[in-house]
């Protein structure tokens, strides 16, 4: 049985289209635009019940529609949003014991900047010498190959130590 040339071209086109989207694993910055995760929308405008009871305007001060993500989170989880202190260390008195227990091994003040610097150094060391590649290369996989966890051996190691682990799909040989 003879396969037509158009069928072969169609199969090749479909096979190659699966190699196109690598954007989530691309470690290079996308550009110099704004960070969409740092933009907080304002609260909706509402009419006050009594216009005479409004506070005096303070230039540069807080506004009633300014976002308060910590207080909103506490309120959404069923807590007391008034207990969230907007200034100072921002820790309500009821959560002091929790924060103390969580930070018992020390707290790094600039952990995000420190981790970003360590990650940049790690990727710089893991970079391959050649920049010109014949085929697309997954830089994410190259950089973090040694950092990945093999789930089946980790699951078996926990089971061997007597920990209860959930069932997992069988390993594919």
Structure description:
It is built from six helices and no strands. By secondary structure, the protein is mainly alpha-helical. The longest helix has 16 residues, at 111-126.
Give the arrangement of secondary structure elements.
Elements: H1 5-17, H2 69-76, H3 96-102, H4 111-126, H5 139-144, H6 151-160
- How much helix is in the residues? 25-40%
Query: How many E strands?
Result: 0
| Radius of gyration from CA coordinates | 27 Å
Mean pLDDT, to the nearest integer, reads 76
- Helix and strand element order: HHHHHH
SS-based structural class? Answer: mainly alpha
Beta-sheet strand percentage?
A: under 5%
Biggest β-sheet, characterized?
A: none
Distance between the termini: 34 Å
Q: Which parts are unreliable, with pLDDT below 50 for 5 consecutive residues or more? A: none
User: Helical segment tally?
Assistant: 6
Query: What best-fitting shape do the alpha-carbon axes yield?
Result: extended
């Amino acid at each position: 049985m003879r396969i037509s040339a158009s069928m072969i071209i169609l199969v090749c086109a479909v096979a190659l289209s699966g190699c196109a989207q690598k954007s989530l694993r691309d470690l290079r910055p996308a550009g110099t635009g704004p960070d969409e995760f740092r933009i907080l929308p304002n609260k909706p405008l509402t009419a006050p019940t009594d216009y005479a009871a409004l506070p005096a305007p303070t230039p540069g001060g807080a506004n009633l529609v300014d976002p308060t993500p910590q207080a909103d989170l506490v309120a959404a989880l069923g807590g007391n949003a008034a207990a969230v202190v907007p200034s100072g260390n921002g820790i309500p008195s009821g959560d002091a014991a929790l924060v103390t227990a969580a930070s018992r091994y020390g707290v790094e003040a600039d952990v995000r900047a420190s981790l970003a610097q360590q990650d940049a150094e790690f990727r710089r060391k893991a970079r391959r010498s050649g920049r010109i590649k014949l085929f697309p290369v997954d830089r994410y996989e190259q950089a973090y190959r040694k950092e990945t966890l093999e789930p089946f051996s980790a699951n078996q190691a926990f089971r061997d130590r007597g920990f209860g682990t959930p069932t997992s799909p069988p390993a594919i040989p």
